[in-house]
What does this fold into?
Amino acid sequence: ACPPLRRNLQLLSPDEVELAKMLLNEGQIHLFEHWPEPGVDDDNKRGFFDQVRRLNSSYPGGLVSYIQNAKKLLADSKEGKNPYDGFTPSVPSGEVLTFGNDNFVSLETAGIKEACNAAFVLVAGGLGERLGYKGIKVALPRETTTGKCFLQHYIESILAFQEASCKMVDEGCQTKIPFVIMTSDDTNALTIKLLESNSYFGMEPSQVKILKQEKVACLADNDARLALDPSDKYKIQTKPHGHGDVHSLLYSSGLLEQWKTEGRKWVLFFQDTNGLLFNAIPSALGVSATKGYNVNSLAVPRKAKEAIGGITKLTHVDGRTMVINVEYNQLDPLLRATGHPDGDSNCETGYSPYPGNINQLILELGPYIEELKKTHGAISEFVNPKYTDSTKTAFKSSTRLECMMQDYPKTLPPSAKVGFTVMDTWLAYAPVKNNPEDAAKVPKGNPYHSATSGEMAIYRANSLILRKAGAQIADPVVHTFNGQEVEVWPRVTWSPRWGLTFKSVKEKVHGNSSVSQRSALVINGQNVFLEGLSLDGTLVVNAADEAEVKLTGHIQNKGWTIQHVDYKDASEKEEIRIRGFKLEKIEQLEVNYTEPGNHSLSA
Ligand code: UGB
It folds into this structure.
């Protein structure tokens, strides 16, 4: 059927001949039509089959299933078939938390108690195409006052949970919280390098497990013909399959069973660039534990059209109901098709009535394992081709099947306890996803989700937390960086061990302390107390564990000023350009307390 392939048969092993037959049967003749005579590019031809073998073994059911699933999903997409046919959306009810009230504080305490029974899973295989940043996103600074990257912050936060939880449960508790990172070929080597060159940011290397997801074949057209790599005609083009792979990888790794044997109860999933996320974890884990949720999704109020999914109650004509994320590109068509002519729009609160999914999931380990025994972690897939025109006959660029981790509850029985927890956006959600140009085009009032807004959100949250704890924090000023108007609050940052929960912050803020708008306050160390500090400038405090430091009196210096940077200015580093500003460190007071005992810093 394919002369170029037939002429090269002598190069192939018997299993490669079988793979070739399978591809021909599935309409993939174009993969071989350009093959030259034997003797030319033979190594490349063998390399092609190495890749086909990998693609075949890493997908449940192999490439035959992949191509057949693709044909079906592409046909549905061409027809405009609605994946939510038969379902009516309505607004679900969940736990709505108010930062700092008694309920919040007691949930945080319950969550800390549970933390040493948890395992954390970071999905970090994404390319960050929307951000357009060349490196891995977890290596980006979370904020530039300390310059600590996201991964360092995540690891330090998990270690802070471990310490606080063990202390609360039993002084002798030695549990090490496992930390899994899902990478892909795009991120794996750089993630490992970042960990190794920084001594795992203080975590024991054995606590960290890397699971690499394999990519899937790209699809060139509606017949699911596999796309050849534009720069290598002996390679099938591949792209990530989506964060949904995390479930099958966890299942096949054996880690879940190991955690169960260790007596663990919870698995917490999170994404690569949300610098506020750990503010929300203690209370959300407290909700899971006290409500007995098998699945708990974290959510924030959502602006209509915001690129985060909406948590929705879906009721089928046959009576089935589920509370599930409806992805941002599907919520609008679903609403329009079910009697809401305005589609995805804000209600009288100024927000969409559907809470925004921030893709932080807390799963109860026991029921999770039982479910995965049935599904092996397979998650329902979708395809999202960008067509050249309304005839839907050709794609602008190749597409692929994808799956999402938050679709896990779709296969659960109605008896499963699926809930969600809504928190304030300022406290819990500030992802870095959009490049400066796209962020500047975000409709006014909607969040930018950029490196600029992501950093400013850290200062805002920390300032508001200190305010709530009783400190006087100056109001912000408004600046425009890279075309985005943002509030600039005092640059307050602290290490996770200092301010893991609201209670722990409150215990350290006494007296009448104040911080002016142009100030930066950096706290590294556990036992640092604000006791009548008045700061107008920059103060960096580093304190060893056994040192107890009281900050009092008026401290004034020229401080660190914020300089505008244009994102097109190639003389600046990319991580600076994408935020549109840099700090000029003119003058600061930096104090180091390395000795145990009581210390006092007074001006
Ligand atoms: N990721 C992987 O690990 N592997 C992959 O193959 C792809 C991604 P995006 P997305 O909270 O802000 C999600 O691209 O998918 C990782 C939710 O679906 O940043 O557009 C990647 O490294 C949406 O409902 O986001 O949207 C990153 O850590 C909403 O909740 C993570 O997966 C939105 O996030 C997310 O990838 C949000």
Observations:
- Residues 123-126, 182, 184, 240-243, 271-272, 308-309, 325, 327, 357-359, 404, 406, 431, 433 surround UGB (CB under 6 Å).
- DSSP finds 17 helices and 31 strands in the chain.
- The chain has a mean pLDDT of 95.
- The CA atoms of residues 477 and 558 lie 18 Å apart.
